[in-house]
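Input chain follows. Return structure tokens only.
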Amino acid sequence: MKKRLPNLDDNYIGLRISDGAGAFIAGFAFLYIFQIAIIVIAGLAGETIEACKPMAIWLMYVTMVINQAALVVAVWVYGLVSNKPIIRTCRLKKKLSPIQVLILPLIAVFSILAFLPIAEGFVMLVELITGKPVVSNINIGTEWWQIILSIFFIAVLPAIGEEILFRGAVARGLKRKSYVFGILMSAFLFSIFHGSAAQTVHQFLIGIVFAYVYFVSGSLLASMVVHFCNNALAIAFDSIMTQAINPEVGASLSGGALAGIYVAMSIVGIIGLYFLMRWFMAESKKVAHIVDVDKDKYAFFKDPIRIFTREGYAKFNATLADLFADSDDKVDINKDINEVDASMVNEDLRGLLEQHNKNTLHKRKRYDMIVLGIAIAICSSVWILNLIISPACPIA
């Protein structure tokens, strides 16, 4: 009777890269499936959904509820199918210190200052290449009660639904390769997922911030707070620009003056954001009782350069791993193989088992990359398709 060789996947602990990518694909699929409900509701109410026409404000509220519900349901279903309690283990209940809570809104403010000029530059580049203006069909209303409701539907709900998917599932799975990889790749998927050139660059950069505060604090509440503040500030900024600022003032500014304002905003934002993110990490180390052994008084200036070195990159990854303190990171697959091998008596069977486990590791890594590649291909294709087929909407 042949002895069945154990497969490492049978007792593998935690999320893999393929789980992060798989949850993303599930979110993408459920989002489009739930769009059917939005189309049905709009049809019953006699509303039409057009690319160049802002939605009726009530329909936009309904759309936001359905979209965010789709993302949460997708994560729940994927976890159910894969037998991995993603939502229960995404650190939603971990509390933050008062100082951490104080820093997070400031991070959102300086993120907007830092990233808005860069995002606007990208939008101008896209408009130059395509010859079509990039517009948004989001309608926040003009009445005070409409703006308050918009803050709930556009700021609160995405801060819950999108963070559960992109940080609680996607980033947590992708960090299996490295924490920096998890931050950057989850931010890329987050930006492309929105399908709009007007949001792509800002969403990528702010996605980096969301994943950073999540890993540093070890709490999904941190990224939710920054996400909420970012969206709420965007709504407030849009409302002020629409109602309080004379369009002729902006039109009267020369290109050089406008570029100067954008550059100044970005410089102030980047410096302030860098300081706040270091402060947030230092506070998180205090909360986690981690002693900072780096006493270099010039670390503030050296770290942005050192992170691009192999040693600095490894140190930053190790710091994030210590702060996030995920027990899954401690699973040493190669060590597990050796322990299994040592328990075998038959030399031939031991060698066969070792080769089997090596093959399993190779297949797992290949499968992870294939699923991630599929996720990137799907969202990139949709983004490019939206850019190509979107009509040239007139600017009001």
